[in-house]
Design brief:
Shape: elongated
Order of helices and strands: HEEEEEEEEEEEEEEEEEEEEEEEEEH
Helix content: 10-25%
Number of strands: 25
Strand content: 35-45%
Length: 393
Amino acid sequence: MASGSLLTLLLCTLQPRCDGLTVDPPENLRILDPGYLGLLQISWSPPTSPTDVTECQRSYQLEYFDTNSDSWSAVRTNKNTYSAQFDLMREVRVRVYTLLRGPCTNGTLVKSSNYTQLVQRPPSAGAVGTEPQNFVCVYYYKKYVECTWERSAKMSVSSQQRLWFWHRGLDIAAECPRYIVMSGGARRGCNFTKSSLPDFTDINLCVNGSSPEGPLRPKFFSLQIQNHVKPETSEALHLQVVSDVQLKLHWDVPASRVPAHCLEWEVEHSWEDDDGKVASTQTLTAETSVMVASGREGGCFSVRSRLHKYCAERSFWSEWSRASCHQEKTKVRSNPQRHLTVYVYVHAFAILLLLLLLLLLFVVAVGKMRSRQEKEPRSLLTVVKACRTHTQG
């Protein structure tokens, strides 16, 4: 062992930290874009330091600004290369330190006080404001993936967009296998039914395009499809009366590639209140049945599902199932205005009926009086005639 190394080892043995040892940062920091739509390769060279540290292990600490989380990420590695995901339309910032640990540092981890840094500016390609809007990818029922977007208002009618994708199973980026096209011929999405995408793998996507005025501004995305699953809708929803105040709601899990144990369910109960408004409540459950209070309001029930956090970081809710309703105990809504209207109608009808009855009685009475008046003159004339006949006789 050289005398310098012996002296360094002796100093490190006598001191808790090897303060006299200086470590230089790496050199020749480079960033290479292999065309993987954002996955960049970072490389560097060991420091050309004259200090003899062969008895220590050298490693590196790479720090890079993660554009997805807007924060710095750090990784330690014994290699001279590392690959990380970046948004190519934003600034790429990386820095790297040298680390030493071993007999020369008395087992203490020593990091270079300085670092080597590299900042790479984004390309100024495409007109500002022409990138795709509201880009979203949905993994329907774990059968196929659809990615859709909206066209920017700043794009001309004759502009056309293209989608590219890459994952570790591909040598180079590939174009969308089947575009989703609007009625006017403009592309608004991509369907991956004929091109399977792997789970638990970063998939990089880019939407760019061209127009008669020049290139459109591209936009880059990275995702894992198992976090974008939308389950199928449950169609079999059943209500069972358990008691006068309780119902059992149960449903069947749709037959699909989504495991039943990965689903959590939301139950919606809706009804109309006294004011005619629709009220609703939601209940979250991991079971495929739930006990619910029937109540006097009755009402209707629907369910929907999504993957819970133990199977995916996030997912989409399925569509609501067809409602199943329980109306036997539906409460008749109390409407004071309607009651008042009915009250007025009933009393008006009664008064009208009474007037008709009085009119009828009046007509009958007048008829009898006229009949009596007609009978009295006739009777008097008969008597006079009888008297005259008797006298002449």
